[in-house]
Amino acid sequence: MKGGFKIRLQTLAGSVGFILLPALMLSLCISQVQAARIKDITEIKGVRQNQLIGYGLVVGLDGTGDKDKTRFTFQSLASMLEKMGLTVNPKDIQVKNVAAVMVTANLPPFARVGSHLDVLVSSIGDAVNLQGGTLLFTPMRATDGKIYAVAQGPVSTGGFRLAGTSAGVQKNFPTVGRVIEGALVEKELRTDFKDRTSLTLTLHNPDFTTANRVAQAINTSLSGGGLASTLDAGTVKVAIPERYLGNPVGFVTLIEGLNVVPDYQAKIVINERTGTVVIGENVRISTVAISHGNLSLQVNERPEVSQPLPFSRGGRTAVLPRTDVSATEEKSPLFLVKHTVSIGDLVRGLNALGVSPRDLISIFQALKAAGALQAELEII
Predict the structure, then answer these.
(1) 319-342, pLDDT tens digit by residue?
(2) Cα separation of 365 and 377, whole Å?
(3) Is residue 43 part of a domain?
(4) Using CA atoms, how far apart are residues 264 and 167, in angstroms rounded to an integer?
(5) How many Å apart are CA 338 and CA 285, to the nearest integer?
(6) 30: left (phi > 0), else alpha (psi -120 to 50), else beta?
(7) Which residues have a Cβ under 8 Å from the Cβ of 109 and sit 6 or more positions away?
(8) Which domain covers residue 235, as residue numbers?
(9) Which helix (H) or strand (E) covers residue 234, if one does?
(10) Which among 104, 234, 268, 374 would be 20 to 30 A from 52, CA to CA?
(11) Interatomic CA distance for residues 310 and 234, integer angstroms
(12) Beta 267-271 vs 376-379: how paired, if at all?
């Protein structure tokens, strides 16, 4: 008896373990899916890109450059030739193989002298195609007016334009191109990252709950604890432990891999131009009754011609207007949408109405006006 009881107990324990293990694995999978790395939802204050801009000339075009009315292009060309020892009157320049462009690029936070950057070249004149052109030496400046990079090289448009006398074909935008690794960094940005004693994390989407979760995740993972504190909904300040002083990169590597479940505001985003409706996870609707129908109006014009009988004396042909107007209103029943507890319930309730995205826009606007929509409605 004792042996039998023991066997049954082991079997029961094995069954319980078999049931709980998948549930535990499922919960872990769900948490991993919903969680996001701190690296992906925050950025370190002061570690960012800087925008560069410059004015340059693209040469070597096959007659698709700026026309004679774009005078600043020829003035720029004459000025460049003058610096090379050749004096030319801008009014005497009639070439169509040159285009004036604006050159833009992003300077990474830790770029060093000699690093290569991709630059974007955009026509500012009336050039129709930059394909096959070469960007000439172009200094690129930041907001402080200093030169941080110099761009030069062949322009790749990624498109084409073919035109005849009365028709043409075009792919993408041939007036915009890229120079791959066409800029060389000539000046570095001064950074004191190695000497920092604290870090300031800025959330991409400020939220009090998410900021608090980020601070808790950092404090929980570190043995000392209490190093992270929230300053506001979008800022978390983290003190660098003593063992990482002088090595903030190692500390950043430690905390940016931590997982946090971000919290989001209940929101519905509507794009009326495209009929796109995006419903957030936390959207809820109070119990309401909804009836949504369509009204169709049809107007037909069928003019009738009236003319006199053959061999009749007098009379003239007249056109009499005839208009048929009909109105059809769809009979839509009244549906009861109960208080939803999840986004799935909300979607099933709306699908029961058989509405289109355009109809959803009208329904959500009416729900918001009735006070039954527990979410922010944003129309873009």
Answers:
(1) 777 766 655 555 655 566 666 556
(2) 8
(3) no
(4) 51
(5) 8
(6) alpha
(7) 47, 48, 49, 50, 189, 191
(8) 192-260
(9) none
(10) 234
(11) 89
(12) parallel
